[in-house]
Amino acid sequence: MKPKICHFDTGMTRSLPYKGQKTPKSFLYLFLFSFWFSHFPLLSFAQDGKKIFEQDCATCHRIGQKLIGPDLAGVTEKRSEDWLKKFIKSSQQLVKSGDPEAVAIFEEFNQIPMPDNPHLDNADLDALLSYIAGASGTASMDQSDDPGAPVTVEAPEYSRNDVLMGKALFTGQDRLYNGGQSCISCHNANHEEVFGGGLLARDLTHAFERVGDAGIKSITVSPPFPLMAEAYRKRPVTEKEAEFLAAFLHSVYLEADIQKAQTGDKVFYQYGLIGLLVILLLVGVIWKNRKSLSVKSEIFERQLKSV
Amino acid sequence: MNIRSQISMVFHLDKCIGCHTCSIACKNIWTDRKGAEYMWWNNVETKPGTGYPTKWEDQDIYKGGWEKNGNSVSLKGAGKLRGLKNIFHNPHLPVLEDYYEPWTYKYEDLFNAPEGDDQPTARPVSLVTGEPIDIQSGPNWDDDLGGSPDYARNDVNFKELSDAEQESLFQLERMTFHYLPRICNHCLNPACVGSCPSGAIYKRGEDGVVLINQERCRAWRMCVTACPYKKSYYNWSTGKSEKCILCYPRLESGQAPACMHSCVGRIRYLGVMLYDADRIQNVASCDEDELVDAQLDIYLDPFDPDVVRKAKENGLADSTIKAAQQSPVYKFVKKWKIALPLHPEYRTIPNLFYVPPMLPAMASVDADGIYDSTTESLWAGIEKSRLPMKYLASLFTAGNVEKVQHVLKKLLGVKIYRRDVTVGDLSEQEVHRALSDVKMDTEEAEAIFRLTSLATFEERFVIPPAHREESIEMIEATADTKGDSGFGFKFKPARGL
Predict the structure, then answer these.
(1) What is the C-alpha separation between B345 and A144, in angstroms, rounded?
(2) Rounded to two decimals, what is the model's pTM?
(3) CA-nearest residue of chain B to A288?
(4) Do the chains contact at A296 and B149, CB–CB below 8 Å?
(5) Segments in chain B below pLDDT 50
(6) In chain B, fewer beta carbons within 10 Å around the N or the C end?
């Protein structure tokens, strides 16, 4: 549970008096109150495993269904509690340490790293695991019992219009409804009309293959990745938009083999070369009358000739 | 009226013998440092000639000075927008070749060379690179070469002269030259100050000396371009620009600047002029044919009680006003009007005035081809002088021939008058005509003669007390530093001292 530091901040800035002005008592109370309030959720909901699951895990995981990450039904029986806690805190650390089970899962799920959860303390983890254990009992165990099956790339029937809408949203031609940044700022997708996608985050050309239709939608709506989560925290992508984007990424995935990457390298070189020539030409014209030789060069020339 | 004082100078060109003692005096004191070897804050040129740096007068090449722009003036090659455009590469700068590559000789080779069949020689080495060089030119390479094809014929002042006039100047019997010693003009409207992007150049309030602050100079070299007289030089070693400082440390202690003090021909005069600073813009931006008169008008009569009162109100010391009243420059420039500014068309309002040279009486080849060195009178008319008047007008009056002629006639009048006094072989009528032609009485002629020929050191250099205490009090509380001052440097100079 993240302490809500913003309350503390607000209290501080408000409590800053003008020079020479006495701090009113009400500000002091407000300050104390907000400080207390900021710890309130931590104290009261720390043991609520369900809430933690929904907030931090549900984007990629279900209990009784395989999504982007593995099905968590019965996971508490399959793995030791200690191992699970380590994995939840930092899966990559475990993978890097060479733990064979962790590596196997990482490989199996298309090398999509599970984000770290350093904010969960031991009590939180206990609550979370007990929730998962409890929920596993109620969940039907007969779904997708083949852990080796790839993520499904089946998609609902998207119309041509959905794809076009998705493309417009992806490239930023249409703004996202809540004002979030367009995908192209950080992501690239090989498509003839997507020019110069961002390199800050993963290339989404084969995203559909990796996470599937449901994965794309859930990642888009409530991103599990810290940076993306932060970027869309106040301006979330709507469900409908996620659908359009999934449609677009599906079409990108299907056409990936026939699309050429639009990195723009060549075009940049060409424009750069043309620009350079234009600038050189302009310099030549603007400074045509510049003094390019020593004024004595004529004199020296004549003297050398006469020798 | 905003009256200020300005240290001004007069160089009497008829008296210059072209010995370069002034240049050497200046070099020895100020510019014998690394990076400054090529600089000649004072230099002596032969005219007609191309000067130093070569063709400095050609502002189509160097873009120096101001040009009229409505009721004001703007810099020709620098200024806000133009300066910004060229700030990282200024195409109008003179390059080292336009000055010359300074050199010395490897004298030690004369002593250390191993014994051989040949005499050892001291090879010239560049003072910039230290490598042996082939000397191509020097700062006065055109010295005395009045008719040379490379220098005299390339004189920028020939632009106004017709081909026939130019050719006549290069005929063997008509060839002539005179000298033109030049230092910084310490202008009233200095282009270097106007062009400096760093604000490093300033004109001293107390005496109008233009200086470059070596701590603020950022080597943009806009002043080198902007100064039409090319008297701001870039020191490649320190990365700062430098220029003539009018030997202000000498002035402050009551001594004449080194170049003037050492002048063999005693051609140099120095004194204070009072001027009206409010009129600078008007003068700088007036029409070209009014430039000289307008400039002379800006200098005020130091005997006028109204001027004296307002000068005092403006904080000028009594000693300064007194010095202005005794100023030889005031006499030459304002009273007798026989000294003219060099190239007033650059609109910088220079404070160095020249008494134009009265060239020697001409000789001619008559119809029989006989070289006749006598004329009908001892001094032929000014109209018949060897050098076309247009040439002198291009130097001193922005093309106004009449003005130059008038000055020369006045000088001739003085000579005729003195011939009458000392030899007495001229008719009274002739003498009277020579004087009345230029509306000069014998008293004035005598005064001009005396200040030209017999002036003492104190008459040639009337240096006002510098009143440094006042300047210092403006920036420092002197009581705080009482007992602290003395000899030595406040900051140790970083360059080669």
Answers:
(1) 96
(2) 0.67
(3) B91
(4) no
(5) 497
(6) C
